[in-house]
Amino acid sequence: MALSDACFEFLQATADAAEVLASKVHHYSAPDYPIQYGVEIDALRRACLAVRDRPYDPEAGAELLRLAASVMTFHDGSPGAPERCHREAEMRKLIGLLEEPLDHSEKAAVPAVVQNVMTETSFTPLAAERLKSMLSRLGKSAYDVAIKIISDIGSATVKKMLGL
Known about the structure:
Elements: H1 3-28, H2 39-53, H3 58-75, H4 82-99, H5 104-107, H6 110-118, H7 124-135, H8 140-153, H9 156-162
Helix pairs in contact: 1-2, 2-3, 4-6, 4-8, 6-7, 7-9
């Protein structure tokens, strides 16, 4: 066996794991499943499909790993668990901070932007750009609080884009 064979087996195992994850994501997306998940379901489906279709593409594999880690971190804990309640409270606090300086038409987008910067989705890079413009409108103390919240519970992509 050559080194390239070992690398091939690793990439094939990753593609196989993506298939397993895709089937489990499908299970958790059922309408009668007791926990209703959101955009993370579709994001995971797309990422798993990308790895299945392009098992040798390092970007597809990296995106799936980042997304799976973010979803795991975000949902780690049962509903009502103190950590999850804390995360949701922090998200509400961030939404309130960001909405403060905005006009009515802009405020409507804030919850979606926050959701997409906290959980890794295909919209996360766009949401991070929108978040940057929202953060620039905050005063110093509100900005500092928002950055702390994002540092604590934001997705890896957003932290990287904001230099956190």
